[in-house]
Amino acid sequence: MTQLSCFKAYDIRGRLGDELNEDIAYRIGRAYAESVKPKRVVVGGDVRLTSESLKLALSRGLQDAGIDVLDIGLAGTEEVYFATFHLALDGGIEVTASHNPIDYNGMKLVGAGARPISSDTGLLAIQRLAELNQFSAVDPAARGSYQQISVLDAYIDHLMGYINPTNFKPFVFEVAARRPGCETDERRQLRDSANTRSQQRGDFKGEGDKPLKLVINSGNGAAGHVIDALEKRFQQLKMPISLIKVHHQADGTFPNGIPNPLLPECRQATRDAVLAYGADMGIAFDGDFDRCFLFDHKGQFIEGYYIVGLLAEAFLQKEPGAKIIHDPRLSWNTIDVVQAAGGQAVICKTGHAFIKQRMREEDAIYGGEMSAHHYFRDFAYCDSGMIPWLLVAELLCVKNQTLEQMVQDRMAAYPASGEINSKLDNPTEAIERVRATYQPEAICVDETDGISLAFADWRFNLRSSNTEPVVRLNVESRANKILLDKKTNEILSLLRQ
């Protein structure tokens, strides 16, 4: 029996060739069928050059086990989630490696109701069966069917249900207030041109008004077709929204690099486009668009931590007293926002499987991780990269504020280090070294995920990654950037010695 190293804690990911190939994909299909015992399963795949062949091999494995396969084609992970719960199917599998290197691919698996299948909910059983590779002979008469379908229209209907199109009113362009000293001749011409086109279309009237202008960077990943469909819906509803598309075409060679805006080096194209076009906000996706990353009108990247608080407040306005799930890496701002809005903040171990399970247990309306994963009760408690930016875009119009204005007070009140990764020879020893140094003075110790130590004016979380061979550090303070930087440097020095 050969061990399959592509099976990870939450999903399947491996280097193409030895770790993941069509034979292994076929075996995964057979193993999934034997373990989950579904009748109908939806499959989809991202833009990677091997995703289609792996998806077809996976489908053959499912069919040979007697399972009917519904193939939605090129799709992001959340489209598979949506198809699974919308069509009341028994499971779904997305072939994707998201933001992993180009020579990788993988799979994300769910059961009925789009419930995640991870190491503690069935993935280990699927791994054992795939490794054993002792499946019953194929009965040609009992093979499952294969059908190509589309759920795009229904998916767009669902996304649009999170916003009110009438809230998208034209902005009043106020250069002095919103872009002081930044309007070049080129931007002025772009603004005037946009105003003229919109007035000709009849979208709005009034000197100085402008459509909401959004830069969308799909990273040559799977998001482009959804953005096109949303744009068409905006036009049908005469919503004053103008989209500037960057790296829009799906291209599995990733000519502009692997899309992972969590890395600072992957943000420049979005920032440049926001500034060049005088956009109100920038949105960038990873490869399978289950995460979106936001930039304000100045091209500044906004940490996902502060977006969690922003969305939590918005949902609590709709449902006062509701529960909000958050991870422990950075938490003070979220807890503060939720409590001030009359909600209940519930801490949960990091990771989509844990967040989704806790949301179901608590019937939470929303859950958010600082890593830009956002979860929604009405989306079968699954994470979506499309819903967050739609909600934030609506907030821009409702509040008539820039994204910077909406988060700047929170960023000042709770400055954060952002997640800092360290590759260490002995991570356990390093973490214990940090614990021994700081725990005696801590006023709160929490081990929900790794170790979180809180003091009067600052706190930190230190944890080993579940998906990569690194230790992750997050530090935040109470309105004290100098203290934040000092403590971050202290811990990193101690950690890496």
Rg calc: 23 Å
Helix content: 25-40%
Write down the overall geometry: globular
> Which class do the helix and strand fractions yield?
alpha/beta
Give me the number of helical elements: 16
Stretches where pLDDT falls below 50 for ≥5 residues? 173-184, 193-208
Termini separation (Å)?
41 Å
The total of beta strands comes to 23
- Largest sheet, strands/sense/barrel: 6 strands, mixed
Report strand %: 15-25%
The overall pLDDT average reads 93
Q: Largest sheet, order of strands side by side?
A: 1-5-4-2-3-6
Q: What order do the helices and strands come in, and which of them pair?
A:
Blueprint: E1 12-15, H1 22-36, E2 40-45, H2 51-64, E3 68-74, H3 77-86, E4 91-95, E5 104-111, H4 123-132, E6 146-148, H5 152-160, E7 171-172, H6 175-178, H7 185-201, E8 209-210, E9 212-217, H8 224-236, E10 241-246, H9 268-277, E11 281-285, E12 292-295, E13 301-302, H10 304-318, E14 323-326, H11 332-340, E15 344-347, H12 352-362, E16 366-368, E17 374-376, E18 382-383, H13 387-399, H14 403-413, E19 420-422, H15 427-438, E20 444-446, E21 451-454, E22 458-464, E23 471-477, H16 481-495
Parallel strand pairs: 2-3, 2-4, 3-6, 9-10, 9-11, 14-15, 14-16
Antiparallel strand pairs: 1-5, 4-5, 7-8, 11-12, 12-13, 16-17, 17-18, 19-23, 20-21, 21-22, 22-23
Helix pairs in contact: 1-2, 1-4, 5-8, 10-11
